[in-house]
Design brief:
Length: 378
C-alpha cells in the first residue's frame, strides 16, 4: 500500500479546502459583494458537487480508470481556477467558480474509492491515512489566516492556486492500480437506493452538512464581527481540526468497540450543541473553544462512520457511485442549502438565528439516523 503517496494527496486536497472554505467569503466581501451574494457564490461550489461526482463516478465505475479521472480533474481545476485573477463581479465569478469546482469536486470521491481499493481487508486503516488531510487543513487554515492579516486578502487566490497545482502533482504519484476495476456486482443501483437504511443515511449526511453551512461559510466573518482577529480565528479553526486529528488516530479502535450507527447519532447530537454555543455565546472564549473541540465529533467521528457505512452499503461496481452519492448529497446538496440559508438569515436577521437553524437541523438528522440507519447492508 503506497501509504505516503495516498496521504500526500489528502494533505494537499484538504489544505486547499481549508483555504477556500473559511476565507473565500472574506475574499468575496473584499470585492464589494454583500453577504447574501457571498452565500450564493459559495453555494455554487457546493452545487457543482451535486452533479460532478455523479458524472465522474459513473465513468470511473464503467472504465476502472479512477486515477486517470483524478489526474485529469485536478489539472483542469488548476487551469480554470486561474480565471479568478481576471474577474471581480458577481456573474463572471459565478462562472469561474462553477468551472473550477466542477473539476475539483470530481476528484475526491474517486480518490476515496481508490484508497479503499488499497485497503481491502484492512479498511480500519483508512483513518490513519485520512489524518494527513486534517494536518494539511490545519496548516493551510493557519497560514491563510496569517497571510490575509499580514499581507492582504488579495494573496489568497495565489495560495489556493499553488495548492491546486500540488494536488495535481501528488495525483501523478499514485498508481492506476490503486483504482483497479472492482468485481462486478450487477444488482441495480436503484434497488440499493430503495432500501430505507440507505436513503436514511444519505438524508442524514445531507442534513449534517446543511447544518455546517453557517460554520463553513461565515465562521471567519462572524467571529471577526465579535472582535476576534483573523489570525486568531485561523487558530480556532486549526484547534477544531487538531481535535479531528485525535479522532482519526483513534477511530480504528473505536470502530471495533462501538456501532457505526451509534457514533453517527452522537455526532449529530453534538453538532446541535456546538451550533448553540457558537450562536448564543460567541464572545465567551471558553465556550467557543469547547465548540471548536466538538469538531472532533461533528466532522471526525461523523465522516469516518458515514464513509464506512457507504462502503458497506455500496458494494462491487457501485463503490465509486456510492462515494460520489455521499459527496453529492452531503457536501454538494447539503453544502449548497447550508450556504444559501446562512447568507439569507445573517443578511436579514442575525448570526444567532443562523446557528440556531443549524442546531435544529442537527437534531432532525439525529432523529432520522435513530429511525432508519443500521450497520448491516441488507
Amino acid at each position: 500500500m503506497p501509504y505516503w503517496r495516498l496521504s500526500g494527496f489528502y494533505f494537499f486536497y484538504f489544505a486547499s479546502l481549508g483555504s477556500l472554505i473559511f476565507y473565500w467569503s472574506i475574499y468575496l466581501e473584499s470585492l464589494g459583494l454583500s453577504r447574501q451574494s457571498t452565500g450564493e457564490l459559495i453555494a455554487v461550489l457546493s452545487a457543482t458537487k451535486i452533479v460532478s461526482p455523479l458524472i465522474w463516478g459513473w465513468i470511473a465505475d464503467h472504465t476502472g480508470h479512477r486515477m486517470r479521472i483524478v489526474r485529469s480533474g485536478a489539472f483542469a481545476a488548476v487551469l480554470t481556477f486561474a480565471g479568478v485573477f481576471w474577474v471581480s463581479s458577481y456573474w463572471p465569478l459565478a462562472l469561474v467558480m462553477a468551472a473550477f469546482s466542477f473539476f475539483w469536486n470530481a476528484v475526491l470521491p474517486q480518490f476515496e474509492a481508490a484508497t479503499f481499493s488499497h485497503l481491502e481487508g484492512q479498511t480500519h486503516r483508512y483513518s490513519v491515512i485520512r489524518v494527513w488531510g486534517s494536518v494539511g487543513f490545519i496548516l493551510a487554515a493557519w497560514l491563510a489566516g496569517w497571510g490575509i492579516e499580514t499581507l492582504t486578502v488579495a494573496a489568497l487566490p495565489y495560495f489556493v492556486l499553488i495548492l491546486f497545482a500540488a494536488i495535481w502533482l501528488s495525483s501523478l504519484l499514485v498508481p492506476e492500480s490503486a483504482a483497479g476495476h472492482r468485481s462486478l456486482d450487477h444488482e441495480p443501483l436503484s434497488r440499493v437506493l430503495a432500501r430505507p437504511h440507505v436513503t436514511g443515511l444519505l438524508l442524514v449526511c445531507f442534513l449534517m452538512q446543511a447544518g455546517h453551512g453557517p460554520y463553513y461559510v461565515f465562521f471567519a466573518p462572524y467571529m471577526k464581527a465579535h472582535g476576534y482577529s483573523i489570525s486568531f480565528v485561523g487558530g480556532l479553526i486549526a484547534l477544531g481540526v487538531i481535535a479531528e486529528v485525535f479522532v482519526f488516530l483513534n477511530m480504528h479502535r473505536w470502530g471495533k468497540r462501538f456501532q457505526l450507527r451509534s457514533l453517527l447519532i452522537v455526532s449529530l447530537l453534538l453538532s446541535s450543541v456546538r451550533w448553540l454555543l457558537l450562536g448564543f455565546f460567541p464572545e465567551n472564549l471558553t465556550l467557543v473553544v469547547i465548540a471548536q473541540m466538538l469538531h472532533a465529533a461533528t466532522f471526525g467521528v461523523y465522516h469516518v462512520a458515514a464513509i464506512q457505512l457507504i462502503h458497506i452499503y455500496f458494494t462491487g461496481r457501485h463503490q465509486g457511485k456510492g462515494q460520489a452519492l455521499y459527496s453529492s448529497v452531503s457536501f454538494g446538496a447539503g453544502g449548497a442549502v447550508g450556504s444559501l440559508y446562512s447568507g439569507y438569515i445573517w443578511e436579514n436577521s442575525s448570526g444567532m438565528y443562523m446557528f440556531l437553524t443549524a442546531a435544529i437541523i442537527g437534531l432532525l438528522g439525529a432523529l432520522i439516523a435513530w429511525s432508519f440507519v443500521r450497520v448491516e447492508p441488507a
